[in-house]
Design brief:
The strands form 4 sheets. The chain has a 5-stranded antiparallel sheet, with helices on one face. The protein is globular and about 55 Å long. The protein has 2 domains: 107 residues, Phosphorylase Kinase, domain 1 (2-Layer Sandwich); 179 residues, Transferase(Phosphotransferase), domain 1. The termini are far apart. The protein is an alpha+beta fold. It is built from 9 helices and 11 strands.
Length: 318
């Protein structure tokens, strides 16, 4: 196994793996801070916003709930710290580029603009998803019913289908990165480790994202399919996410078990995919099995999964 020497310290939060690529100066595109036409004003600056609350932390940044001082519109503002570091800065600019490309998809958190702070940190202005994440919903309300999971899966797959059709791999699908607003709309968030793929299928094997939700081939590409695209890895992560929301804990762990990086890697790569409990319907079981194929080429695509009976059984047509 290629990564055994990079074992992480056990952590109650499922650990993340950083991408260690060569550092080099990153030029700033002249139009990178131009926001979409729906933004609050022609230019954005730190003084335009009042911080109301901290919404969360992750991937080297902090997300705030903010109010635009002129329009009183409420937004989410993600501030990526240490953007003087070339690697971090490059990743932030890539995140902005991807968000701009996906601004018209209803199942992706909407991008409203970005600006640079005097400290060098880059801030990304997005719509506020005021009902939190699926991770929060699981902790607060308990496990999800199949009917609710069907709705969640459909909306996430609509977002993934949109991204994949534009050669974008998210690479960090998990409950905390799927957000809900007060209209019960489900949207994909946090593109901090996403990748714009080339025109041809290519390896997507930099070790970024949350290792617990990584597919087998992301740990060991040579054993599981050689060169692979990142799209099927997103499908694996979605399967684990739905599984977790149904049973209430991460699939490869017992309830209350502490995650360990090496243990998770071995379980994902060498164990059979986890099986849903007997309470699951045959349609849901089949859907998850289509996501959790060990061989990446055998997994259904996002477009194919949108036609699966689990999503279609309650629809008039599909």
């Amino acid at each position: 196994m290629a990564l055994v020497h990079r074992r992480r310290h056990p952590n109650l939060r499922l650990p993340e793996i950083s991408d260690h690529r060569p550092r080099f100066p990153v030029p700033l595109p002249s139009n990178i801070y131009k926001q979409s036409s729906s933004a609050a004003c022609d230019t954005l600056a730190p003084a335009d916003f009042e911080k109301l609350a901290v919404l969360g932390h992750g991937n080297g940044g902090t997300v705030y709930k903010v109010r635009h001082k002129v329009t009183s519109t409420i937004y989410a503002l993600k501030v990526n710290h240490n953007d003087s570091d070339p690697t971090t800065r490059r990743r932030t600019l890539a995140e902005i580029n991807i968000l701009r490309r996906a601004t018209d998809c209803p199942n992706i958190v909407k991008f409203h603009g970005s600006f640079e702070k005097p400290t060098g940190d880059i801030a990304i202005l997005m719509e506020l998803m005021d009902s939190g994440s699926l991770e929060t919903a699981l902790k607060t309300n308990g496990t999800f019913s199949e009917s609710k999971l069907s709705e969640v899966a459909r909306e996430v797959l609509n977002g993934l289908s949109y991204l994949h059709a534009r050669n974008i791999a998210h690479r960090d699908i998990k409950p905390s990165n799927i957000l809900v607003n007060n209209k019960n709309e489900v949207k994909i968030a946090d593109f901090g480790v996403s990748k714009l793929m080339g025109r041809t299928l290519e390896a997507c094997n930099s070790y970024v994202g949350t290792c617990a939700y990584m597919s087998p081939e992301r740990f060991d590409p040579e054993v599981y399919g050689g060169n692979y695209n990142g799209f099927s890895a997103d499908i694996w992560s979605l399967g684990l996410t739905l599984f977790e929301l149904y049973v209430g804990h991460f699939p490869f762990l017992q309830s209350g078990q502490r995650p360990d990086w090496a243990m998770l890697m071995c379980a994902i790569c060498f164990s059979d995919p986890p099986s849903l409990p007997d309470t699951a319907s045959s349609e849901f079981r089949g859907f998850v099995e289509c996501c959790l194929k060990k061989e990446s080429g055998e997994r259904w695509t996002a477009a194919q999964l949108l036609t699966h009976p689990f999503l279609c059984k309650e629809m008039d047509s599909c």
